[in-house]
Design goal:
homopentamer, 373 residues, alpha+beta, Beta Polymerase, domain 2, Methane Monooxygenase Hydroxylase, Chain G, domain 1, 2 domains, 7-stranded mixed β-sheet, 9 helices, 7 strands, 54% helix, cell membrane (chains A, B, C, D, E), transport (chains A, B, C, D, E), CorA_cytoplasmic_dom (chains A, B, C, D, E)
Chain lengths: 373, 373, 373, 373, 373
């Protein structure tokens, strides 16, 4: 179980350089596995829980003509997983992929069974984090084994359908159950996207109402989440396509029809992600353009006020000079600031200043500085 | 029926996480269905209206050797749609796609019939909103069923052609009718594009005449509409291509010739959308460049005025200093501001200021600040 | 005949929403058709002119074992075009494409003939506008019919070659004539590109010699012209490729060799267009970088002058204060501005100012403001 | 052995213009080769070291029914490599590729053997440099020859597995050994990526805590390293794909299963690289946006302070003017600055200034300058 | 022979609009052809020079069982080239392509021979210009004819190998000779790239040491050169690929092995070009970021100095006001500037100013203006 932000910076593959392939390595913080086995046929559903391989063997012995769904939550027990691998004759490379929880969605066919992985994308309860965990599934003749990293259950709806026998779920075989689980996972993507959509809505409102620089950070954050979603849904689509084009006898034509539906949902998700990415980009562009405009406006205010007052202050400075009117001997010094002694000189000077200010305001108005850009 | 802006933020798939596939779920605000049945052959067109499945059964009974076009406007009745599905033996996945109105244009072949969806893009009466609604069509041997989300009718022209028996419409089979409806939908795209083209025209005029920051918002808005149009026309093209390459016996070579024409129209629409997107981008680039230039101009005005007056004001400040000419005892303090007592000092000072100002103006003129960039 | 700028904003398809396919609609400003028929074989070329279908019938009657080239300039007569369609048994969809003059270059094969369109790109006489008009051609067994929107003739060179019997033009059949016309059209693209190349040359010179903001507008204008050229030459290339790969008996291996040559010319044109687009982008980038640098320079001048004079003016302001030396009773107020009464105080103050100014200049010089960026 | 930075600027192919193909040219700074031969079968591992071809011949003679792994570290001896080529009948083009250490990862099949190259990416001990060196391998029937540019050994883990006989390494043939070496090389990519990931972590922390312009340089540096990594892993993936699709009898189906696993690791590496590139780009975007915001803030401070004080200073300037109250004869000059002699004039003036300042602050507050953007 | 800069603006195809295809048109500044014929077999190499077709005929007569390499330098003689075309039965379209020296690299097969073109990219002697000229080659059964635009010889190394009989050059047929010439041309690309790499090195050093605006121009210039190189090497790669996949009997499997080697070199060249383009882009980005930072720094200096001194100057302005202490009758005017008469008022005012300045400096320091961004 890893946070969204964390996961971006911890792509180090489990295991050491030069490890032999097929080695099962469990991260230290993995949860202890809990096993639930559902054995079902058209008539009944029998389930039992446990935390070691015994519960599987018991159920196998008890339910002879049933399809078994072995649901494993938590991967923190290498020995258990290796024992299951031996019991069910699973290739060690598959076991390595189950426990190394950084797989891309993929579909691999082996002799007598197939293996597939998906990414479960879930919002935390507080809706402020996105958890990206791995879901792996092995489908054999009358058997489906699913592995999840954590305990919280996004498959309740499927279990309900199984108990209520809604639709074809009890009769259409383990590949249909595999489809049902994958489709449920894809459905949760819509939930996450709806949450992101609402955040974008809020972000856009903020842009027009009270834009500040956190918009840039939040847009970038949103963009990364969308990139992560895309990175998950792109190979998910490919995986489902591979399943549709597979000629494994496990995947019946009926299941393929449903997979085609899931494929359409993937395409739809990718469309939504693309729309959201474009909206995010456009929010960022608008924000940057607003910053530019803001700068422009600030400069305009500064320039208008400065340019109007600078000449006026200069004039005041002129008449603040101390050029003497009379020399030591009391003679008038010719030409030295006679204005200061003129009648009405002060109101004339004030009027001149007013005139200059008005002229400058007029020039700026003519240049459109008061109403444009 | 959803507004353009809205639709971008509500891509949540109808239904709940973990729903069984093929479940018909109707949004709360869906309109009550109105059914119109047109039964036509070379000789006559018989039509009747109603709001339940009876009208279809009556018409089937009445018109034995006719092609039937069942036109459903409004999707707000799950039971009715499921009844129609049973009557005409339609796969539940198709019914789910009809009522879940966020499908991309697509073409799916089933045994004995095909299913296709398009997006109807229409301007609101006030031309300020774009409605993006779903059109679904099922084509069987002598039957075509069309579904629209709302009542307003963009197919009047087709109904006229049907009544007037213009062209091959009464004789070329239900797939030709399907083509005629799709072609009409594509024609409305040209109407919407023409409206966007006019808005771009206005926007470009505004850019040169009175650019303000709303241009950025409007360009972004236009760009999103174009992206939405592109998102619709791209899979529309693919869908028509799929129909052309389909070997369904329902699609005759004659219909394929017409579909090829519709395909060309799609390509043309995508060309126009691309042109418009490029024009929008170029408007934004020009606007941003104008903002830059405006900033430049503002800075130049500020700089020229400041740089000219700052030294002058400094000189005025110098001669406004109160350094005393005489000490307490009436002795002249040597060197203290003798200029203030010089003959003609004031006009000399003014002349010096004028000279400095002229010099700076000359320097700026030489640097080209008065006529460049 | 439509101007370049106009054409970008008028992509509305001729005809109304819901029109039956194959309907010939003529725009109001279309020119009256003028028909010229050239009937040629190895021995002779017979030509006659007219403005109705009679001239074609006469020529057909007169020249039994000739290849006929019917050259129609102007499309403003729906009846005439429909009559020609009937006479020569042309599909109505083709007639619609001929009169709806916004087709992309394309190649369509029909039973017994093929149809192709090109775009004629021509400079106006004053070289300030680019005309983008449609050229359509139908090739049958011993017949080629060409349609142009306007009267001015870019095919004079071909007619000369026909009259002088240069090359294979009289003997290689109507598809060769079709090639000859298309090749001539492609040749005019080089003329237009050479004109754009010269404009780019001028623009680049202006960039280095006297950059002003019109460069941005002109670059954008150039870019749009290049995008338009690209939009024309891209499908032109595809069309020629379709012709080369066609197995129509009308297109002989000899003609295909020539078409391959024309294909190379198209590739070359697209190369040139790409180069020019890159040059245009690089001009815009350089211009924007110059604007930035200019801003930088302006800010530097403002900052240097302001920062030098602000402290000096402050000092002048200090010594311009009126703190009194003596109180009402004539006692010296202690500490109040004794500097004003110091010997040599004024030159000392001036020297201090000079020192500060020099210090600041030195700091800026050390920071490299006088010679960098 | 070449540093990362260096290598970007030294792509000059070894050899001279016009050289005959297949010529072995050794760079001057190449290390003297050291040869280690491991001969192994299910029972035992025999190894010996040396620096000429004799050690190979001895080992061949000594171990008849073994698989031989000839490990060559250092390429600085053209004669030795040519001798090995002759002994093992290797095409001179292969020898040229081994010594010309700028090959992209590739896989070439020859009669009886195949040749493949990889790039070894290693951190220097001080973790401040990335070494990008070439690994070449030739696989024959019971023989694998590996070439490295330098002595330091990233294959210790493989040698340990060989000695301990872990997994299939002693029995699965030379192609498995080839896979084991390549997989080890790919594992080291994860190590380098983890290091880059940590640097990005630090960079992002710095962005939020103490952003300065070195962030730009460091991001660019990081981006180049990622581009280099991508340039290596992209053809690596293609190479492994080529090996999987090869029908060489040397590559058994068992080895292909393992190669498929290595292929997944390559895809995973490219995913991580893409994530990191996006993070790098987003850090640069955020930094540039911070620079913009910083500028904005600076301008706002300047503008607010300037705009508030400029009018105040102007008013002070007004009352600092020296307009005379009385003329020479002691008559009051009418209107000249009567304010200066009013009662309470000074506190009134100060109050007026305070009012103006407060008004301006209020205006800026209303414009949101104190809390926005 | 055309300069790099020039060539970008002169893409006008030789010949006139509407010219018949296959017409040989020679540009006015083309050089007079010089012909060298090398006739070689395993035993000997016979060569002779001349400037008309006679030298070829002589050599043909003299050397019966030799392979002939006719090397033509200079294309300025249409008659000669047409005569050669007749003699060797070459299609006129090929002759047109040889003389119209703006061909992209391509490979065309004709009956009994093939035709290929390459671009020779060479540095001028002064290393300040790049010459992009055309190399054409026709390969027949025992004959290879090469055409170059100019006299200077980049094939000396090949001629040496021919004379010294190095490698397979005398025995592997004319296609091998064709490969040898093309490989030599590709080798010269590495020389040009090494030169560009050095320029980039210098540019990057300048960026860090003394960035000025010429960096922008130089980067753009470099980028264009790289785009030109890419435009040449991309179709070069395709051409070689076409040759490898060709089933012409002239291209033996042995030659194909060598061509595969040349293909690798092309890929390598394209890798290097891409690296260099990325470095160029990164230099431009860094430069623009430096300009931004510089602006920031300038604004910061301006703002700090202005904001500190503006309030101080205002205070000085306050105490520079002339509000009178006494009215006409000598009565003290109440409240008018009593500070001016306070004891120690002046040092108090100075201290207040110092305090304000220190406070502002502290505020800026707290905001991090002295050490960040």
């Amino acid at each position: 179980m890893s946070k969204n932000k964390r996961s971006r910076f911890k792509h180090k593959r489990m295991g050491e350089v030069g490890d032999a392939p097929g080695m099962v390595r469990i991260p230290d913080d993995a949860l202890k596995p809990k096993i639930t086995v559902y054995s079902y046929n058209e008539a009944e559903v029998v389930s039992s829980k446990g935390d070691d391989i015994g519960v599987i063997l018991d159920q196998f012995a008890k339910c002879k003509n049933h399809t078994h769904w072995i649901k494993v939550n938590g991967l923190g027990d290498a020995a258990l997983i290796e024992k299951m691998g031996e019991l069910l004759k699973i290739n060690p490379l598959v076991l390595e992929d189950i426990t190394n929880t950084h797989q891309r969605p993929k579909f691999d066919e082996y002799e007598g069974y197939f293996f597939a992985t998906s990414r479960i994308i879930e919002l935390s309860a507080a809706q402020d984090e996105i958890f990206n965990t791995q879901f792996s599934v092995i489908v054999k003749d009358d058997l489906i084994i699913s592995f999840q990293e954590h305990y919280n259950d996004c498959f309740e709806a499927v279990i309900n359908r199984l108990n209520l026998s809604k639709g074809a779920i009890r009769t259409a075989g383990p590949a249909y159950m595999c489809y049902a689980l994958m489709d449920t996972i894809i459905d949760t993507y819509f939930v996450v996207l709806a949450d992101i959509g609402e955040s974008l809505d809020t972000l856009e409102d903020r842009l027009y109402e009270s834009a500040d620089k956190t918009i840039m950070y939040d847009s970038q954050h949103m963009k990364r989440e969308l990139i992560m979603m895309r990175k998950v849904s792109w190979p998910e689509r490919d995986k489902i396509n591979d399943m549709i084009r597979s000629d494994s006898p496990l995947i019946t034509p009926e299941v393929k029809t449903y997979l085609r539906d899931a494929y359409d949902h993937c395409i739809h998700i990718m469309d939504v992600i693309d729309s959201y990415k474009e909206i995010t980009t456009s929010i960022m562009d608008l924000y940057l353009s607003m910053v530019s405009n803001r700068m422009n406006e600030i400069m305009k205010v500064l320039t208008i006020i400065s340019v109007i007052f600078i000449p006026l202050t200069f004039i005041a400075g002129i008449y603040g000079m101390n050029f003497a009117r009379q020399d030591d001997k009391g003679h008038i010094i010719p030409d030295n600031m006679p204005e200061l002694y003129m009648h009405h000189a002060y109101p004339i000077a004030l009027a001149a200043m007013l005139l200059i200010a008005a002229g400058l305001v007029f020039i700026f108005w003519r240049k459109g500085w008061f109403n444009r850009l």
